[in-house]
Design brief:
The protein is mainly beta. The protein is built from 5 helices and 40 strands. The longest helix has 18 residues.
Length: about 700
């Protein structure tokens, strides 16, 4: 029987020789890793003496190794098993939750979809994958993992406002030379407040980005997208990737192992989908190409975007649609005409298309004029004169007018004037995804008498709104001219079509749009959203730097802020006294110079939007900084069985040095190959960890 001490000395000698000569042996598919030897250690003494006969000296040595290396990274992901995580994926807010996804290890033509994955605060995401090409020696796969791999997340990353605990959940996309792996994220609703995180871009890697806007159209200009680059984990020594907005390509900056580098993309518009395409090359150094992806939702507080409370604020000025150079005299020709890029203050532009079987239209400058009634001013509508679009079909004719918005638009009034006699108008519309709206029951309708011109007596009767048929119908038998109706959608819209039929010559109505800061659900404001974080004190040489903690607003649609300590706001509630951030650059540091707390310290940040009664309170927690560097790592030991073409994996409990076998990814068989057939006739090897230890 070979003595444990003899084998131990031999293993130490092998380790010294390997480290001295930087030798790599048996680099196989089982444990792919590009920076150092990637196969499980041969614990040949197990084969010689058997686990039950291992003496107490060996287990004492094993326990000391566990204690000594409790800050080491002890497991890398591999091609046949799900990554083991010491910390679970965040559940309340933040990252796209990929924790429950099964792993693919398939053929080169493999494709599939993971459906309805939760994106905190912003609906769900469908993740699809597709592999194509001639392929190579490696089997392609997509799998979920902790991208940080248990390492301490760097300040490069956490200072951007991302969580410092819980790891970085994401997907790995591994391919072979000559093969293309595509991963696509399709959002259940258009999203803006997301970070698209791409990591491990090294050697000659290139990742091409494509995307669609809120209407499902391909985005062709990425120059407005912003990028942050850095190193995911300590130490921060990786070569950083490069983003080219003209080509929408993320590429490696150095032909070497970047390992934990990242590129974080932030869009400049709402998107419905984002796709990452990655092709393997023939670079011999990059023999197992892979990149990794994660999505982070930046919405916190009250997430109003794409909700039913019209909580979408225009940017800057508000007011009536600018009809521009639309003719002010009657246009009597039939057919179709488009007036492109009419400005809606605060919302961008709209294309107005009219289709007539006959009749007239024009921009009528006298449509909104005269003294205003209180029913008009109570809606926050201005008393200044303004044009509206005059629509008058021939007898038995029809006019349809389409408002096609250049972006999803909400908190916008669709205004109609002069619906009287036998007039009736029907509405159709499309939502932010371009789908037909079939339920108008949530649309707000307000109506009244616009003006006091012609000394109205009696007051004009406004039209009635039937949400079931999406129709406005006159209730006024007289030709009173002055009634108005406001329709405000309960969702963001990309298109509204107005259809007006007439059975009598001379019947006409007016229509226009009005953008407003008044929250049409009766709340009186548009509640802001905000992403806010508490950043710990920094460290120098293992010592806490005093008064270096701060609070950070990463993004918001509010315009002022105040804060107080504690989990409820106790600061100045007056909007006028709050700090203005309307022209700030984000991320914005506030409350700088905070002391290092003992334990935890809550702060409440109040973000205002236009007034003292329009705000959201966001509670953040500042953690005590002790400047310790470590990880909640698990220790594993691998036992190779060449004759059985298997590898056994054991989780080590350092408190009692107990070994628990980890089974295959489906819970059956040995860790490798699980319930599958082994691709290796005799899996074995020798490995060192990231610190160079055996």
């Amino acid at each position: 029987m070979v003595k444990i001490s003899t084998i131990f000395l031999l293993l130490l000698l092998v380790q010294v020789l390997l480290k001295f000569f930087n030798i790599k042996i048996f680099e196989t598919v089982v444990f792919p890793k590009k920076k150092f030897i990637q196969v499980s250690a041969i614990l040949s003494f197990f084969l010689l003496v058997g686990i039950p006969n291992a003496n107490a000296g060996f287990f004492s040595w094993l326990k000391s190794i566990v204690a000594e290396n409790n800050t080491h990274q002890t497991e890398q992901y591999n091609s046949v098993d799900i990554i083991d995580r010491a910390s679970s994926v965040l559940s309340a807010a933040g990252y796209l939750d990929v924790s429950g996804l099964s792993n693919l290890s398939g053929t080169f033509s493999a494709s599939g979809t993971y459906s309805n994955i939760t994106l905190p605060g912003q609906g769900t995401v469908d993740i699809s994958y597709n592999y194509s090409g001639t392929g190579g020696a490696q089997v392609p796969d997509v799998r979920n993992l902790d991208i940080s791999q248990g390492n301490v997340l760097s300040s490069d990353y956490t200072n951007l406002g991302y969580p410092s605990a819980g790891g970085l959940p994401g997907l790995r996309n591994k391919i072979a030379a000559g093969e293309t792996g595509v991963i696509s994220y399709s959002f259940s609703q258009p999203v803006l407040a997301v970070s698209l995180i791409v990591t491990d871009i090294d050697w000659d890697d290139q990742v091409t980005v494509t995307a669609t806007d809120a209407n499902g159209n391909a985005i062709t200009n990425f120059t407005g997208w912003t990028v942050n680059t850095g190193d995911i984990s300590i130490p921060t020594d990786a070569n950083l990737p490069v983003w080219n907005g003209s080509t929408a390509i993320i590429s490696s900056s150095n032909d070497s192992n970047g390992e934990r580098n990242y590129a974080i993309l932030t869009t400049d518009q709402y998107v419905l989908s984002v796709t990452f395409s990655f092709t393997g090359t023939t670079d011999t150094n990059n023999n197992q190409p892979h990149t990794q992806y994660s999505v982070y939702s930046n919405v916190s507080g009250q997430a109003c975007v794409y909700s039913n409370d019209y909580c979408v604020s225009p940017s800057g000025a508000t007011g009536f649609l600018d009809t521009g150079d639309m003719p002010t005299s009657d246009v009597t020709s039939s057919g179709t005409v488009t007036y492109a890029d009419r400005i809606i203050p605060g919302y961008g532009t709209v294309d107005i298309t009219l289709n007539k079987t006959g009749g007239e239209h024009k921009a009528d400058g006298s449509a909104i004029s005269g003294g205003r009634q209180t029913s008009w001013t109570d809606e926050g509508l201005p008393t200044t004169d303004h044009p509206a679009i005059f629509l008058q079909p021939n007898s038995g004719g029809n006019i349809t007018m389409t408002y096609a918005f250049d972006q999803p638009t909400g908190n916008l009034d669709l205004l109609f004037l002069d619906i009287d006699l036998d007039d009736a108008i029907t509405i159709t519309a499309k939502d932010a995804s371009g789908n037909a709206i079939t339920n108008f029951s949530g649309w707000r309708h307000a109506a009244g008498d616009m003006s006091s011109w012609n000394n109205p007596d009696p007051i004009a009767s406004p039209a009635a709104w039937d949400a079931g048929t999406a129709t406005l119908t006159s209730t006024d038998s007289g030709n009173d001219h002055r009634s108005f109706s406001l329709l405000t959608p309960d969702v963001l819209v990309t298109e509204v079509v107005v259809s007006f039929n007439s059975t009598t010559s001379g019947r006409h109505v007016y229509s226009t749009l009005f953008s407003t800061l008044v929250d049409r659900d009766g709340g009186g404001c548009c509640t802001p959203t905000a992403s806010i974080f508490a950043i710990q004190n920094s460290c120098t040489n293992g010592v806490v730097d005093p008064n270096t903690a701060y609070l950070q607003i990463s993004n918001t649609d509010g315009d002022r802020y105040a804060y107080s300590s504690g989990s409820t706001f106790s600061g100045d509630p007056d909007y006028a006294n709050a700090t203005d951030m309307s022209a700030a650059t984000f991320p914005l540091q506030i409350a700088t110079g905070l002391a290092n707390p003992v334990g935890l310290q809550d702060y409440t940040v109040r973000v205002f939007n236009g007034g003292s009664d329009c705000y959201v309170d966001v509670v953040v927690t500042l953690n005590e900084q002790d400047c310790s560097i470590g990880c909640a790592c698990k220790e594993y030991i691998y036992l190779n069985e060449p004759l059985a073409s298997s590898t056994l994996k054991f989780n080590i409990d350092p408190s009692v040095v107990a070994l628990t076998e980890i089974l295959g990814s489906d819970g059956t068989g040995h860790w490798y190959p699980g319930s599958n057939s082994s691709e290796l006739p005799s899996p074995h090897g020798l490995a060192m960890d990231i610190n160079g230890s055996l």
